[in-house]
Each structure stands twice: as structure tokens, then as C-alpha cells.
Amino acid sequence: MIGNAVKLSYRNKTILAPMVRVGTLPMRLLALDYGADIVYCEELIDIKLLQCKRIVNELLDTVDYVAPNERVVFRTCERERECIVFQMGSADANRALAVARLIENDVAGIDINMGCPKEYSTKGGMGAALLSDPDKIELILSTLVKGLSKPVTCKIRILPSLEETINLVKKIEKTGVAAIAVHGRKKEERPQHPVHCDVIKAISESVAIPVIASGGSYDYIKEHADIEIFRKATTASSVMVARSAMWNPSIFRREGMLPLEEVMQEYIKYAVKFDNHYTNTKYCLCQMLREQLETPQGKKLHSAQSTLEICEAFEMETFYEEMTAVLETKKASLDTTKNEANDHVEDPNVVQIAVRFDKREYPPQITPKMCLLEWCRKERHPQPTYETVQRPLDRLFCSTVTVADQKYRSIIWDKSKKLAEQSAAIVCLRTLGVPEGKLSEGGSSLVHKRKWQDKEVPNLAENGDGLSAETSHKKLHFSPGVPDTDTSKAS
Questions:
Q1: Stretch (H or E) spanning 239
Q2: Residue from 116, 197, 371, 376 carrying the catalytic annotation
Q3: CB 183 within 8 A of CB 155
Q4: CA nearest 220: which of 239, 248, 246, 201?
Q5: Residue at 4 is within a domain
Q6: Average pLDDT of adjacent 10-residue blocks, the chain of 491 residues
Q7: 356 and 482 inside one domain
């Protein structure tokens, strides 16, 4: 078992190893589908994570760590929460701890990569560069173990001599890490060089903590049964699979690997569902195709410049369109819910009632705005002023009317600016207890006044020489999302 807070066993487990640009969410989920027990994310540099903001993505049901440039640096989901190890590149103990604390509640464990020989890692003193500084290794790991509630592991490469390697591993064991992964090659060796199973075996026999054997893809692991063969050859507690899993993640199936075409289609489905960046999706699929890249399908994939074009290369454009429609519908629903929640937030300075103007309830040419204006004149108040905004999402309108320094609005959004203003007037009139001119209220002075005006000038409106009391003012320009202040006397 690893750690106290999380029961995460490495013994006799298969693991999808981290690979740069490979260990993203779609690939990890696919590996879990096929039988992997534990998955690693790709190595992520500590400084990059410290700049990120944690965001709960309700659209995708994921947790995203987003950089200032809006790029998603790390994405995970509930499904893998108990079986994902977050692998970090770091050369500073305090920085590593800060990142680990930021992310530990979203993962099952934290790993420090001390075996990466790539320049992007070593030039910053990370990865394989740490192998020459055992004291720094000890400081980083012991700081993490003491400061976290989740298990801590590390991954190393072997040193020039067996004695040096075992001494380093024993020093690491004393830090309290839960397990150590050993890539059975030296930092200058590459996949074409044979993996040193004898060194991994010697390490396994020299420490009490679990040892995870890594590096067997090229020489040993071609199918699921080979995972156990490699484990026995190294006497390790478990095996980490990298390139073989990248070429065909169904290598984790005990029943045997699936046809590559089927595996790639399942991978694409996850890539679309979780909005994986098309460049990463394309890279992973190219790694799966390998020698088939020169086929018509491979060439079409290689030239793809979007997720849709990738789907077209695999005749999955219908799936893409359907999933895109599902996500768009969900997004609209989430946006509406959020907007409604924001719309209905109590504002102590505004009287809010849920009302909507229905012209069928009023006599011809009589409106709540007219009633409110007439009341303000009678009471010698300044004329009502209306501030109207339009919501970009659904282009609906909401208006706030100010009367005698008090604001009134309806919490129901309307399909036009005029309707929104009428609704605001209704809220004001009902709050003040003033008749709003409805047919159900019977006769009113405003109705009789309007009938008298119509008799005096029956043809003005028809001839274009005059306008109704509601439209006699000059209209102000109105831009979506920008307050529109209406100070008309006739409204």
C-alpha cells in the first residue's frame, strides 16, 4: 500500500507511464478502459503549474489547470481521481511542494521525474540532471513526503555503476517515498539500447519499498502476457509501460489486443468528448499508425489541421457533429442557469418582482409606462428614467426604471426593449399601489383623457403629423449589453 490517505497499491499492477504529449486525459482513460490500474500524466514543469488557475469545467465534467494564456496545462476527471499519479519536473523542494499542494486533492499520488534525459528538463536542473545531486533529490522527496497527505514516488534512471545506483536508491528509500520507478537504462542510452534487467533486479532485492520496472517496451513487451515476463525478469513489484501502451493501449487487455482501427476510434471519441487539442490527438494517432502513415488514411491524418479533419480521416465526422451538438446544448443550458442565478441576485437598492407585460390585458393605446408618467406628473416627481441592457447569450432585455430616486425592475427578461420597459413600469406601479391601466381595473382618468384626445385630433397619427404619447420622443441609440438611459416625458 502507498500512503495512509489513499489506498493505491503498485504490487502486480500495470501502469501507463508518462510520455511527453502522450499522457493526456483521453489516452489515460483509454488505458484504464483496457485494464491499466494506474496512469501517469505527462511530465509537467513545476513553474508552469504554479502559474495556473484551477477551474471546475462543468461543460466537460473535468478539473482544468489553466495558464494565464488560457491554455489548459492539465486536465483530469472524477473517473481517474483514485488512480492517476501526477508527475512533475522540479529542481526545487519548496516549489515542488507548492505545486503538489495545489493539485493533491485532484490526484491519487505525486511523482518526481528524475530520469528524463531530454534537454528541456535537464537544462533546468530537473529530470536526469538530478541524478548527479543526491542531496537535492533527498531534500525534494523528504519535503514532499512530510508536507503531503498523498503518496509520493519518483522515477530514476540507472547510474554508471551498480554500486552508485543502489546507494542512491537506498538514500531515496529513507525519504519515506511509497515506491520508486526505475528505467533500466543510463541517461545517455536510448530505446535502441538494451534495458538492464539485472540492474533493476539488484535494486528490487536491495530495498523494501515497491520497485516499478520501466523501459521494457522495446525489448520485452509486445502483448499483455509480456508484462508479467518483464516483471519476473526484474523481480519488480510492478511494471510501467510506455511506448507499447502508446502504440496500442489495448495491450492492457488480458484477453488480447484489439484491432488498431477500433482502438483509434475509441481514442478519438475521448478526444472529442474532452476537447483534447487537435495537435495532441494527431500526435497520438500518428504514434499508433507508425508504419501505416504512408497509407491514404495516414496521409489524411498527417495533413489534418483540426479535430473535425481528424474525424474525417477516420470517417467519424457524424460522431463529431453529434458530440459537438451535445456540448453546445449543454453549454447553452449552463450559461442560461448561470445568467439566471446572476439575474436573481438580491439587490437591496432595487425593488424586484417577477412580472411580464401582456398588452392584451390593457385598453388600446394605454400602457403601464403612460400610467407611471401621468402619476409622476401629478405627484410633481421627475419623469421616470429607464436603463435597459441586453444579455449577449440569448439577446433578451431587462430594464430598470427610476422614480423618486428608487429603482424598480422585473426579474423576468423580455424579448424586446419596449416590453422590458413596460415590465419595469408595472413593478413600480404595483409597489406604489398605483393603477396601471389594466382592463380589469375598470375606468381610469387616463383612459378617459386618452379618449378625449383621440376625439380632438382623430387623424394626426394617421397623417403622420403627430405621434402617440408613447412614441413622441426622440429615440436614443441602443447597443447590446450597454445601458440605455431613456428620459422621455412621453414614456
A1: strand 238-241
A2: 116
A3: yes
A4: 239
A5: no
A6: 37 57 83 94 93 93 92 95 95 96 96 92 93 97 97 97 97 97 94 94 96 92 95 95 93 96 98 95 94 93 95 96 92 72 65 89 91 95 94 81 94 91 95 90 58 44 35 32 41 37
A7: yes
> Which residues are registered as beta bridge partners of 238?
212
Q: Are residues 336 and 197 both part of a single domain?
A: no
Nine-digit cell string for 205: 532485492
E strands, 305-358, are: 350-353
Domain boundaries, position 408: 350-486
428 is an active site residue: no
Q: Which residue has the cell 502513415?
A: 293
- Cell numbers representing residue 417 in the block: 426593449
Q: Give the separation between CA 457 and CA 146, rounded to whole angstroms.
A: 89
For 353, the grid coordinates are: 418582482
Local structure of residue 295 (DSSP, 8 states): S
Do the Cβ atoms of 212 and 183 come closer than 8 Å? Answer: no
pTM over 0.85: no
Q: What is the CATH number of the domain that holds 187?
A: 3.20.20.70
Residue 114: which H helix or E strand, with range?
strand 109-114
Q: Measuring CA to CA, which residue among 365, 456, 138, 231 is closest to residue 156?
A: 138
Rounded Cα distance between 392 and 350, Å, is: 22
Final residue of a structural domain among 343, 369, 393: 343
Task: With beta carbons less than 8 A apart as the criterion, state whether 243 and 16 touch.
Answer: no
The answer to the question of residue 1 being in a domain is no
